[in-house]
Structures are given as structure tokens and as C-alpha cells.
UniProtKB/TrEMBL annotation:
GO MF annotation terms: DNA binding
CDD domains: LuxR_C_like, REC_NarL-like
Residue span(s) of domain Response regulatory: 1-124
GO biological process, one term: phosphorelay signal transduction system
One Pfam family here: GerE
Domain HTH luxR-type: 146-211
The protein, known as: Response regulator transcription factor
Amino acid sequence: MLADDSTLLREGLVRLLAEEGHEIAAAVADADELIAVLERAGREGSQPDAVVVDVRMPPTHTDEGLRAAVQIRERWPGVGVLVLSQYVERRYATELLTDDSEGVGYLLKDRVVQVDEFLDALERVGAGQAAFDPEVVRQLLMRSSRSDPLGTLTAREREVLGQMAQGHTNAAIAVRLHISQSSVEKHINAIFEKLGLTGTSGYSRRVLAVLRYLGT
């Protein structure tokens, strides 16, 4: 399902996704209509794999899309949510991350024209993974070195953690950084230790490390 008040972008996405073999269950212009069609789909037992939603939509063009995204995550946790935004809005991005980053993505609209990256992000979100725009991650990291709690990490460890923040798996990080998967695992273990997360188990350690990295 798609929700964007720009007819041009909305119809363009419908055409792009259809050409790539995706089924578009609905394409709407505002958040209220998106929630309404999701409710109908729920009653009919036909929830979508993922929803693409703009942050700013009618009537106020402030945070309607974000509030819809949060509501979708609460009411239909099995539905992936990919948020599109014209600009990096730190509060919105971190709010999505601080709850549960499974099946959540945040991309700048400029990324849509890079079709392969957009489709990859959408497919990852639909599969229950995370997908955060590299530029979003970069801008979330902008803070003074004095307040940076990650000063003990090596340059490579920060690279690995940056890839984690974008939602990539260990295998994908290895390919993107041209290192072995075992090296990625060693770097991640070192990151957990330096961030004091060795007593925390499994997936939550990864989420906590990313949240620490993003300064949330």
C-alpha cells in the first residue's frame, strides 16, 4: 500500500512497483485513508506485506505520515513500514528506531530515483528487516566529539556499526565492506564489549548498539 499526497509521485511509484512485479493493494493521498484501507484489509484477512508512507501529508503537512506509521506498527506489527521524507528529520527517524526497528525503514525521497536501492529497502522492510537511508544515518551521527560515547571504537568498527544502523545483516555488511563475515562478527563482538552490551542477549544487543550509535 502507498500513501503520498503527491499524485505524480504516488502514481509513479504504483507504475514502478507494478513493473517490478509487486501487487499494489491501495494507493491513497492521506494518512486517514491509509488507516481505513488497512482496517478493511484486516477484516478481510488480506494485510499487505509493507506500506510506503510520506511523513508530511494533509491536512497539516507536519507529521501525519509518522503518526500513521507508529499506529501501523502498534496495530499491525506484521506489516512493514517504509517512511519517505523530503528531508532528514531526526526526531521522526529516531522515534521509529527507539521502539522496534524490525520491518521499519526511513528513506529520503531522492533515493526513490535510485530504483535498485529503493526496491531493496522495500523488500527488506517487507521481509521484517530494517532499512535506513545512509544519509539519514550520517546526519543522525552529527554531534560533537566530546559528547560522543563511541570514541573507543576503531574506524572499522564504526563502519560496521554504521552498516548495522542501515539495517544490513552480517553477510551484507561483509560484502559491502569487502571483508569476511567472520571479521564482521569479530568487529560486532568488540562493539558490544566496548559499549557495555556483553550482558545483553541476541537481537536486543544489536538494537541497543544502533540506538547508542544514533545518540537516542
